[in-house]
Design goal:
Elements: H1 2-7, H2 9-24, E1 26-27, H3 37-43, E2 54-55, E3 58-59, H4 65-82, E4 88-91, H5 97-108, E5 114-118, H6 134-138, E6 140-144, H7 155-165, E7 169-172, H8 183-193, E8 196-200, H9 205-209, E9 222-226, E10 237-242, H10 246-257, H11 263-276, H12 279-301, E11 305-306, E12 315-319, H13 327-336, E13 339-340, E14 342-344, E15 358-362, H14 364-368, H15 373-388, H16 393-404
Parallel strand pairs: 1-13, 5-6, 5-7, 7-8, 8-9
Antiparallel strand pairs: 2-3, 4-10, 9-10, 11-12, 12-15, 14-15
Helix pairs in contact: 3-11, 4-11, 5-10, 7-8, 12-15
Bound molecules: pyridoxal-5'-phosphate.
Length: 410
């Protein structure tokens, strides 16, 4: 830091301002988290300077004696974290979740083939076939939705749609779905229609490693994940597929989409994966869920509607229609009170994604800061107060900043 301060005051000042913003606010964005200091230290290592195009021990550059050992070690740690044997192949090179997903599609499908996935406005991700994503441009997309009454996945309906649509790939795993995903049911549907099953566990990877959500691996052909959400690693991604699919998928990462792997990120992922197999991480994963359930319960006590009636994981969607406020305004108001969230569509939303009817709350980051159920009650009370009495925002902001001092970022 001292070096940056001496050489580049402009960037140094921005880093310090961002640190202050993060320290003084409550981060309820479900896809964000704070990696440990050890993970962040690995990100600044000299691995950043090394090119290593290719796969371990099959590279195009010299100077590989440490990078090859590193990448192989991190692949092994990923297998250990998810309890996988020799029949799985791991690729830790994808720069992020979006290119990881696209590499899988281009590896397993021909352009125009059918993908069956959850609609974006029901909790799916852009890269699961949204018309503005290359996934939606290059492939024929059929979407399933959550059930209108229960706001949960209806596996019977998804099975029927799969028989009708005959997809070559089915995607399970989402950005805004608060219930346990029945990967076994998806496996059966995929088998019945002869489709590949891809599980995108970007959001819940840490819960799976920490045994707070069932694993997709017994049922999936390929699993993709980001590494920076509940897993608490660096920004990055992994593709883990059945050995037999390795030669189809991995060449789409390199040379198909990418050049040199980001070795500093891979080193940091290795550190995160070692942390993730500890009893402390298992306690963390369980606390993330307990906190989400507590936050949902206390919000309900303040008359907030939680989509599907609650949460089984780290995330919840709040339907704001009974509060006479839309998602964009709620997000902005909460931010002015030091509570950072994101607006979100709710299933069957009558409003637009730019100004939808809901907000999404998640507990991975606040749990990393050491907050527990008691603090969730306090946060729910602030949310309620600010939404019902916007004038309270500046006072709440001060209270939030003082509260945050008790919960330092690691
Ligand atoms: C389910 C899911 N898949 C993929 C991604 C894409 O990850 P990235 O933003 O790293 O490209 C996200 C990101 O939020 C996600 O929620």
């Amino acid at each position: 830091m001292k070096t940056i301060q001496a050489q580049d005051k402009e960037i140094f000042d921005l880093i310090k301002k961002e640190e202050k913003r993060q320290v003084q606010t409550i981060d309820l964005i479900a896809s964000e988290n704070y990696p440990s200091r050890a993970v962040r230290a690995a990100l600044t290592s000299l691995f950043v300077a090394k090119y290593s195009e290719g796969r371990p021990y099959k590279r195009y550059y010299g100077g590989m004696e440490n990078v090859d050992v590193l990448e192989t070690l991190v692949e092994e740690r990923a297998k250990k974290a998810f309890g996988l044997g020799e029949d799985w192949a791991v690729n830790v090179q994808p720069y992020s979740g979006s290119p990881a997903n696209y590499a899988v599609y281009r590896g397993l499908l021909d352009r125009g083939d059918t993908i069956l996935s959850l609609d974006l406005s029901h909790g799916g991700h852009l890269t699961h076939g949204s018309p503005v994503s290359l996934s939606g441009i290059d492939f024929h997309i059929v979407h399933y939705m959550v059930d209108q009454r229960t706001q949960r996945l209806d596996y019977g309906a998804i099975g029927e749609l799969a028989i009708e649509a005959r997809p070559k790939l089915i995607i399970a795993g989402y950005s805004a779905y608060s219930r346990i995903i029945d990967f076994e049911a998806f496996g059966k549907i995929a088998q019945k229609v002869g489709a590949y099953l891809m599980c995108d566990i970007a959001h819940i990877a840490g819960l799976i490693v920490g045994k707070a959500h069932p694993s997709p691996f017994p049922h999936a052909d390929v699993v993709t994940t980001t590494t920076h959400k509940t897993l608490r690693g660096p920004r990055g991604a992994m593709i883990i597929c059945r050995e037999g699919l390795r030669d189809k998928i991995f060449p789409k990462v390199f040379p198909g989409l990418q050049g040199g792997p980001h070795n500093h990120t891979i080193a940091a992922l290795g550190v995160a994966l070692k942390e993730a197999v500890t009893p402390a991480f298992r306690r963390y994963a369980s606390q993330v869920v307990k906190n989400a359930q507590a936050l949902a319960k206390h919000l309900q006590a303040h008359d907030f509607e939680i989509v599907s009636g609650g949460t089984d994981n780290h995330v919840m969607l709040v339907d704001l229609r009974n509060k006479e406020i839309r998602g964009k305004q709620a997000q902005e108001l909460l931010e002015s009170a030091g509570i950072v969230t994101n607006r979100n569509t709710i299933p069957f939303d009558p409003n637009t994604p730019f100004n939808p009817s809901g907000v999404r709350f998640g507990t991975p980051a606040v749990t990393t800061r050491g907050m527990k159920e008691r603090e969730m009650k306090q946060i729910a009370s602030w949310i309620s107060e600010v939404i019902s009495t916007p004038e309270s925002a500046s006072r709440v902001k001060k209270e939030v900043a003082s509260f945050c001092k008790q919960f330092p970022i690691p």
